[in-house]
Each structure stands twice: as structure tokens, then as C-alpha cells.
Amino acid sequence: MKRTLLTGNGAAAWGARLARAAYIPAFPITPQTEIIETLSDWIDHGAMPGRLVTLDSEHSMITAAGAAAATGVRVFSATSSQGLLYGMEMLYTVAGWRAPFVLVNVSRGLAAPITLEPDHNDIMAARDCGFLQIHCATCQEVLDAVLIAYRLGESSQVRLPVIVNLDGFYLSFTREPVEIPDPDAAAAFVGDYDAENVRFRASAPTSQAMAVLGGSPYSYFRYETHLAAMQAVQGFEEIAAEFNTLFGRDYPAVEAYRTEDADMAFVMIGCFATKAKAAVDRLREAGWKIGLLRPRLLRPYPAEAIRSLLRGKQGVAVIDQNISMGSGGVLYSELTSALYGRPDMPPVVASFIGGLGGRDISSEEFFEIATILKSAVDSGVTPPPRLLYSEDELKQIEKLQTIAHVERTGGNH
Amino acid sequence: MSEQRFKRLKDIPSTHLFGSGTPACAGCGGLEVIHQLYDILGEKTVFINAAGCMTLLAIYPFTPFRGSWLYTAMASAPAGAQGVRDALDILLEQGRMEKSDDLTTVVLTGDGSAYGMGLSATSGAIERGLDFIYLCYDNEGYGNTGQQYSEATPHGARTSTSTGPRGYPGYKKSIFDIWIAGRPAYAATVIGAEPLDLARKVERATQLKGPKLITALSPCPTGWGFDPQESVEIGELAVKTGIWPLKEYVDGKVVHTKVVRKRLPVEAYLERQTRFAHLFRPSRNEKLLAEIQQRIDSYWKQIETS
Ligand SMILES: Cc1ncc(C[n+]2csc(CCOP(=O)(O)OP(=O)(O)O)c2C)c(N)n1
Ligand code: SF4
């Protein structure tokens, strides 16, 4: 085992290398390019066996990835934002092929307006496609999640592609100390990819992804995929436990931070949860009984684990870094539907939306969220959803709008 | 290049590999081509299909193919072929697959995909030198969705989205020219009505490594409006009128494999299809007919003088 400084992108590339991915279809997009460049460099200089092919788009990239996985080689790929959306048709398609491979998504906001900075609307758009989703908060977790993802996706009860998600810039370009597992130990953990009976061979002709006639076979195959994804909750726990035994790092499907004796909890995914943890520590110092839940696994949704961790709590604040336009935070509605109608569940679940397009969530804001939550718990009234946006920011925008107006009209009103 | 297997019609295989009883329309010119091509390629193939009429050839759990099949989507069949081909190569390199288990990678798409939505994926595959055969059956419209205009629709044809008196106002583009601009290993136009020419070209394609186009004009009784039993005859007329030139691109040169000495007037082809009926009834559209004829004539004039 080797300890070194790696960016989140570097850690993702190491994950692919240690998993011995043999095929890497690629297409550039910020902020994931470093992953592909790193792999390309290793392959070009003989440090890693494998073939990297730059496709003409993410739509083609995902198609090639699924097709190669269906033919029997281990595939790795990476994208972000618009790239994930451009490949969306094929995300649904290759998941339906039950072609397991790992796709790293480096989360970034979506146009319009165009931005390079992160939030989670890209990955939320891929929520229902059949890819499993593992969300990371540290560079170490990124590397380890890639290894776990191969084991999980390729396991015979699951056989589905997996997205490993990390936040653009905050994690993709932050250097952290990362332990690189011993290559032999990592290889032994991941194992060989066995495409079973689905690969294309002259001696064993196969038809994949055929048309179906009527809703009955269609429903059958769709339910099968759903059931396979549901299986992956337990599969993940088992594989993560084995990982822990071998490498000494524990990755439950839902990370619980100081929740045991807590009355209230933040719920977040991604690396901003690290800031929330720091806020929890400070709130605790100030006498608050608060903790944090961070689902690592988002598909399948670890509802049971979340329920058991939240049982008996008085209030929860869900902080979404996405907006489902016309509805609100996606994690919020997922959580409330998991809690609804169950005994002992927190009576107050409050929604906060922030961190969009890389906008920071300050530690004062975590305090404010806790304060709002506390008064909601006391009054028993769930507060309306709240966008984390300050008066100051609004003033800044108004200033920009004034400049834009002056620019457009040449100062003539 | 090795000796050609096909000198006479009798040399063409009489074992028909492709199963019968598919849901394709009676008289489908696309299916006719698949039948012929499959006999020459043999069973060691994997067809990578884009959305279109032929997607319905393989309906769970039945398939008329004896080899393998992968349906992708409308825009990305060549990328699917890239993934399969690369994976097969990797498996061969790693010694995880017998050479005898290797497959010919064949993309199967209609013109809508080939000329339009799938063009970026195709262009990428050509540029990367992918070793595959690309079969485009060109029925000059989006057949599967009811013969709307596609980028392969000929000038003046009625489609379900060009129903006015002038028919489709644009001009059919040349997928052959687009391909050869990318310097592929091979490109050819074929038609089911000329099986010997088709067999020779498919054979040649199998002998070359790299991107290879086989594009087939595919008379479509449903979309073009003619009796299914006339399908072969309509195809012959497309060649005899000079509307569908039979040609190939090999070693950097384009060669016409059939030059009709006395071309029939285009009307002989047009008047047999209801998609061109408005050119003849209620009155003849002399201007449009002359324009269509003139474009064909000038194409051949250029060939004959070069
Ligand atoms: C992204 C997308 N848009 C639209 C369709 C609907 N669609 C299915 S087949 C088809 C027509 C394809 O035309 P062509 O490639 O010419 O093949 P043909 O139907 O003529 O066989 C269309 C538009 C689709 N499957 N995917
Ligand atoms: S619509 Fe035309 S191309 Fe499609 S199956 Fe029918 S005849 Fe063939």
C-alpha cells in the first residue's frame, strides 16, 4: 500500500488502473479531462495495458462502452455535465443491455446558463436510467468506490453499469492524501470480468437488446432490471464489508456522522457534506444534538438504512445541490417518500437548496439551517423550502444586471 | 486482392442463411439485400443495428439471423460496432478468445440514420479506421415511422411530411461521396435487383480491412407505393434509368460497375410509384420531370467524359 497525494480525478484514474480496465472509450469535458489524460498517458507509456479510444461524442462513447462490456471486456469511462446528458439515451440503453462497466461522473452544473462549476443536476438526471450510483466525498473514496463498483456491477445478481460520482473542482482538483491499494490485492478483490453467456462469439451466437412485442415482455425485462438494482443494496454492503476487511476502510451505504444520540440531522450527498460535518462538530460544541447522514448509494436507494438511522429523530434538514424545476430538491422528495407512513419517523423534514454552480455553503449557513430546523421541531410546523441565497448575492446580481443594461443600451435609457 | 468467387449468377450461394417469416413488408427491397449479403458474409457476423424497419427483424425470442445481433439506437450503431470490434480485438490479443470465434462486424442502418442522425458516429468510425462493414438500405425516407422525408429523399418525391404538389423540395445527398471523402477502405452502391454485382462487391468488402460502405437503394412498396411483386423490377428500372449508379470506390478511385449505354427516360421509373404520381396527374409537371432528367443526364455526362 502506497500513500500519496492525488486529486479526485487522479484517484478515479487509479481506480480504473487497479481494476485493470482494458477498454476506455473517451470524450473530453471539463472537469473530467484529467482522468482520461492520466489514463492515456499511462497507456501510452506502458504503465497500464489497455486501449483508449476517443469517440465522436458521449452518445457514441456510452454506446461503445456498453457494446464492449457486452462483448466481454472490462470497460471504464468518465464524463461530466452536458456529456452525461448527451449520452442519456444510451445510459438507458446500455443499462437495459445489462452491460456492467464503471462510468465516473464529475458533477458539474448544466446549461443554460453554461458554467464549469459543480452541482448535482447532471447526476440527478441519470437517476432513473438503471445505472447504480455511488457518491463520493473524498479522493480516497473515489478510488475505493471504483473498485467496489466493478465488483458490484459485475456480480451475477446485479449485472448493471455503475456511476461513481464526485464533485467537480471541489473534489476533482483537490489534492488529498490517498492510499493506493497494492495492485495484486486490488486485482484479487475485483476479480476477473466474466461476461457469462452474453458475449458475442462465432461459436455461440447471441442476440442482445432485441425488440419486444407488447407490454408483457417489456414489463418483465424492466422489472428484472429494477429487481437487480434492488439486490445491489445488500450486494453493496457485503462487498464493502469485504473491502473493509482487506483494506481497512469502511463504506456503509449510508454514512452516519454523530447521529446516534442526535435529535436532528442534516442529509446531504457529495463532498459538501464534509463542510456539514465540520458544522456538526461546531454545533455540538455549542450544545446542539445534531448529526449528518450521507447516502453513498443513491441507486439503489438505501431506504431501509436511512429509515433505521433516522428512527426517533425529531427533525431533518435535507440540503440539495440540485433543483427539479417546478418541484424542488430531488433528495428531499426521495427522503420524504421513504419516510412517509412509517412509524417513528421524524415529523419535520425541511428542504434547503444550495451550492448550485459551485456557490459555497458557508458554515454560518449550516448554523442557520440548524436554527430553522430547531424552531420547526419546536413548533411542529415544517418550514417552506428555502434557497440558500443571501441579500448580498442578490445585490451583486442587481449590479451585474445594471451593467448588462448599460452595455446593451449604450447608457441611453 | 484474391480471385473473385462470383463470375456468374450460378456462383452465388444457394443456401439461404437468413430465416424466413420476418415482420418486414412483402417485397421489401432492404430485406432482399440483407438476404443476399448474409449468404456471402456467412454466419460469423455480428449485426449492429440502428433504429429502423430492420430493428423488428429480431423480436424476442426469435431471430432470422444465425449469427449475433445487437440493437443500439438510431444515432450510434457505428459506435456500437467500435465497442464490439475493439473488445473482440482485445480478447484476441489477451488470448481469451479463439481466432475461430472472431466475427465480422456489420452495421445495419436505414438512410435516415446513415445520412442524418448517425452521420457523426459514422464519420468518427471512418476516421478511426474501424474495421467494419456498413450496410445502409436506402428506402429514401424514415420507413419505420411511416416514410417521412429523410436526407436521402429524392427531389420531388411525396413523403408523409412532403405532401404538397411539388413533393419534397430538397435534393438527395450522396452518402457514397460523404464516405469516400473520408478515404475508407471501400465503398460501393448496390441494389438487390443486381445480385451478381452485389455479391462481388460484398465479397470485395470482406477481403479488405477498414471501414467499408455497402449502400443499397431499397425499393419500398409501402413507402413508395407500388405492388410488392414489382420490387425487383423497380430496382432494375432505377439502374436502367441511371437514377441509381452502381459504382465502387477502391484504391482511392471510383469505378462504375455498370454503365447503361441506352438509359431509359426517368419517367419509366417515376411513373411506377405513387410517391411520384403528382408529377403525372392531374397533369404532367413537365418542368419538374425535365429537371429530374437533366440532373441524371448531367451526372452521367460527367462520368462518360471523365
Ligand atoms: C432518437 C430517436 N429519434 C427518433 C426515433 C424514431 N425512429 C425510429 S425508426 C425511425 C426511422 C429510421 O429511418 P431509417 O434510418 O431510414 O430506417 P427505416 O425506418 O427506413 O428502416 C425513427 C425516426 C428513434 N428511434 N430514436
Ligand atoms: S417500410 Fe419499406 S423498408 Fe420498411 S420494411 Fe416495409 S418495405 Fe421494407
How would you sum up this structure, described in words?
- The complex is a heterodimer of chains A (413) and B (306).
- Chain A folds into two domains: 2-247, Thiamin diphosphate (ThDP)-binding fold, Pyr/PP domains (Rossmann fold, 3-Layer(aba) Sandwich); 255-393, Rossmann fold (3-Layer(aba) Sandwich), CATH 3.40.50.
- Helices cover 44% and strands 17% of the residues of chain A.
- Chain A has helices at 8-18, 33-44, 58-71, 81-86, 88-97, 121-125, 139-154, 183-190, 215-247, 272-285, 303-310, 330-339, 363-379, 391-409; strands at residues 2-6, 23-26, 51-54, 76-79, 102-107, 132-135, 162-167, 176-180, 207-208, 254-257, 264-267, 290-295, 297-299, 315-320, 348-353, 386-387.
- In chain A, strands 10-12-11-14-15-16 form a six-stranded mixed beta sheet, sandwiched between helices.
- Chain A is globular and about 70 Å long.
- The termini of chain A are far apart.
- The mean pLDDT of chain A is 97.
- Chain B has 306 residues and is α/β, with parallel strands linked by helices.
- In chain B, 34% of the residues lie in helices and 15% in strands.
- Chain B has helices spanning 29-41, 77-93, 111-117, 119-127, 175-181, 195-207, 221-225, 231-240, 267-270, 286-305; strands spanning 45-49, 68-71, 104-110, 132-138, 186-191, 211-217, 246-250, 253-258.
- Chain B has an eight-stranded mixed beta sheet, with helices on both faces.
- In chain B, α6 (195-207) links the parallel β5 (186-191) and β6.
- In chain B, α1 packs across α6 and α2 (77-93) packs parallel to α4 (119-127).
- Chain B is globular, with a radius of gyration of 19 Å.
- The chains are: A alpha/beta (413), B alpha/beta (306).
- The A-B interface holds A 22-23, 25, 51, 53, 55-57, 59-61, 63-73, 75, 89-90, 93, 200-203, 205-213, 217 and B 43-44, 46, 48, 55-56, 58-61, 63, 65-73, 75-76, 78-84, 86-91, 94, 96-98, 100-103, 120-121, 123-124, 128.
- Bound molecules: thiamine diphosphate and iron/sulfur cluster (SF4).
- Iron/sulfur cluster is lined by residues 24-25, 28, 30, 53, 139, 143, 218, 220-223 of chain B.
